[in-house]
Design a protein that fits this description.
By secondary structure, the protein is mainly beta. Helix content is 6%, strand content 43%. The strands form four sheets. Strands 2-5-10-7-8 form a five-stranded antiparallel beta sheet, with no helix packed on it. Strands 1-12-6-9 form a four-stranded antiparallel beta sheet, with no helix packed on it. Strands 13, 14, 15 and 16 form a four-stranded antiparallel beta sheet that branches.
Length: 181
C-alpha cells in the first residue's frame, strides 16, 4: 500500500513521487519551485503520483532538448505533451475536473535521448471527511475523526456542512459566489 497525496504541492524529491527507469539526476534550476528538478534522458523513464483530489498539475520545463512525455491518469491516456522550445521556461500541465476520489497520474518519457524534467506536482480539490454514515476505502489512508467533533465543527463554522455522509467544505470565490466541494 502506498501513501496517497492530498491537496498540496509535492516537490520533485517528495517520497510520494515514484520514479522508475534510469538516468535520473537532480539538477539545480533557479526557476524550479524548490530550486531543483529531477531530469532523465532515458526512454521509458517516468514518474507517478497517487493522490486524492479533483485536479492535478504536473510541473515541468519546456526548452531545448526536451521530449514529449506521455501522460495518463488512472490508466487513461491524456496525450503526449511536446516540451521542446527555443528557451527554458516553466511548463505546468493541468488536469482539472477529475471526479472526486483517488487517482494516479503517470508521466513517461517516450523519446530516448531527449530530456524530461520533473519539478513536481500540485494536487487540488475535494477534501472529504467521513462521518458515521460512510467509511473511506482502506487504501486512502484517511483517519476518521470523532464524529461528534465533526458535527461540532460544522455547527460552529458557516463554511462547513455535513451532507451525504461527508463534511462539505465551502469556499467563497467572490462577493456572491459559493462553491461546495
Amino acid at each position: 500500500m502506498s501513501t496517497i497525496a492530498s491537496a498540496g504541492i509535492y516537490q520533485e524529491n517528495s517520497p510520494l513521487i515514484q520514479y522508475r527507469g534510469s538516468g535520473w539526476n537532480r539538477v539545480e534550476w533557479a526557476a524550479a519551485k524548490g530550486g531543483y528538478l529531477s531530469r532523465s534522458d532515458a526512454g521509458g523513464a517516468g514518474v507517478s503520483l497517487r493522490f486524492i483530489g479533483t485536479e492535478v498539475i504536473f510541473h515541468s520545463v519546456k526548452g531545448p532538448g526536451r521530449g514529449a512525455p506521455a501522460i495518463a491518469i488512472d490508466g487513461i491516456s491524456r496525450g503526449q505533451f511536446d516540451m521542446a522550445a527555443t528557451s527554458e521556461a516553466a511548463a505546468p500541465i493541468a488536469f482539472p475536473d477529475l471526479a472526486p476520489g483517488v487517482h494516479t497520474i503517470d508521466v513517461e518519457l517516450v523519446d530516448d535521448g531527449l530530456f524530461l524534467d520533473i519539478d513536481g506536482f500540485e494536487v487540488k480539490g475535494t477534501v472529504l471527511i467521513p462521518t458515521e454514515t460512510t467509511t473511506p476505502p482502506a487504501e486512502t489512508g484517511i483517519t476518521i475523526p470523532n464524529v461528534d467533533q465533526v458535527k461540532q465543527w460544522a455547527k460552529a463554522n458557516p463554511l462547513l456542512a455535513v451532507a451525504g455522509g461527508f463534511l462539505a467544505i465551502r469556499i467563497l470565490l467572490g462577493p456572491r459566489a459559493l462553491r461546495i466541494f
